[in-house]
Amino acid sequence: MNALSxxxxxxxxxxxxxxxxxxxxxxxxxxxxxGGAREYTLxxxxxxxxxxxxxxxxxxxxxxxxxxxAGYVRGLNAAxxxxxxxxxxxxxxxxxSLSRAVAxxxxxxxxxxxYFSNLHPxxxxxxxxxxxxxxxxxxxxxxxxxxxxxATNKVAGSGWGMLAYEPLGERLLVLQIEKHENQMLCGAVxxxxxxxxxxxxxxxxxxxxxxxxxxxxxVIHWDEVARRLAQAQKL
Length: 235
Ligand code: MN
Prior knowledge:
By secondary structure, the chain is an alpha+beta fold. It has 8 helices and 7 strands, in the order H-E-E-E-E-H-H-H-H-E-E-E-H-H-H. The chain is globular. Manganese (II) ion is lined by residues 64, 68, 112, 195, 197, 199-200.
């Protein structure tokens, strides 16, 4: 696929879904026309593979992006192709497993796209409307980070920590996602996601998940989080 410019990554062109949640995604996450069929494609990393060292090293990022994220893109496309075939055959015998596959691989693709793009080698501190929203909702940045860190560290098995915006109540929430799609609050918009599947940290941090979560807080792209919040507040 073509290399993406930084501008492509930050430019909002549409929305996707995690469960029933709308998300603000980079351009490359969208489906592309290919010979009449629409397929999801793997976005490039928005920085060099060693850009986040020492917090996340090149070995982890290379495998995480090129193998794991790519696998979710393939899985999502495969499930959607199977569903098309099922419609053409009028045979929905596999509808349960296919529906599960769309939610799992689709959420995996969305979350990894958000994850890689909510990291930055030299991030700015939270400020402006984002910081004000965090202070209003959590009582301060430190309190929010404390809750997000605790929720992320304590995910049972493989999953994600998430800061999200819930449009109905117009509030920020910290969510604890299991696998890629379980415990998602319908309608909430992911603003910041932290992957705690072992593949995200084990090569460097082994079983010390909390050390990884603490380290990754040094490379959170708060300006991107702020952009996602502004977009979510328009929903
Ligand atoms: Mn992952």
